[in-house]
Amino acid sequence: MTIGEEIKQKKFSSEYEKALINLIFTSNWLSCMQQRFFKPFGITPQQYNVMRILKGQFPGPASVGMVQERMLDRSSNITRLVDKLIEKKLVTRCENPNNRRMQELRITDSGMAFLENISNSAPLHQYFETLTEAEASLFNEMLDRLRG
């Protein structure tokens, strides 16, 4: 379905306006699909993002600031996200022995198993499989260029 059909708009002032509206609409659609995907696991997409960052640092720790810098949604409340993951025993937090003001985060073994369970459920990138590999590559180049 085209963006015009989706939002019941026949005309756009330009292809640039149409592209902007299409990108915003599709971004929101993907966010909804992610929310639905993660709901049965009891986590949010932002919590999943934190866990993936920590998995990338494994077995070493990551500072809260480093995790915040790497997040896809940088406006997220990192402290609250981490607290929820700690409650679920998916992540640990401890003081840095060299700098007591800095906290270190680590993914737990159960956090690693949890991520494995999620990745075995269905690929998160499944919505892009309607594109060829070359189209996905071009799409990535275009988005990178858009952000400049």
List keywords for this structure.
148 residues, mainly alpha, 59% helix, 3 strands, three-stranded antiparallel beta sheet
Descriptive report:
- The protein is mainly alpha-helical and 148 residues long.
- It has seven helices and three strands; from the N terminus they run αααβααββαα.
- It has a three-stranded antiparallel sheet.
- Helix 3 (45-57) packs across helix 5 (78-87).
- It is elongated, with a radius of gyration of 19 Å.
- It starts with a helix and ends with a helix.
- Largest sheet, described in full? 3 strands, antiparallel
Number of helices: 7
Relative strand content: 5-15%
Task: Classify the helix fraction into a percent range.
Answer: 55-70%
Overall, the morphology is elongated
Q: Spatial order of the strands in the main sheet?
A: 1-3-2
Radius of gyration: 19 Å
Compute the separation of the termini in Å: 29 Å
Instruction: Please give the number of β-strands.
Output: 3
What is the succession of H and E elements?
A: HHHEHHEEHH
Oligomer: single chain
Low-confidence stretches: none
Structural class from helices and strands?
A: mainly alpha
Mean pLDDT: 92
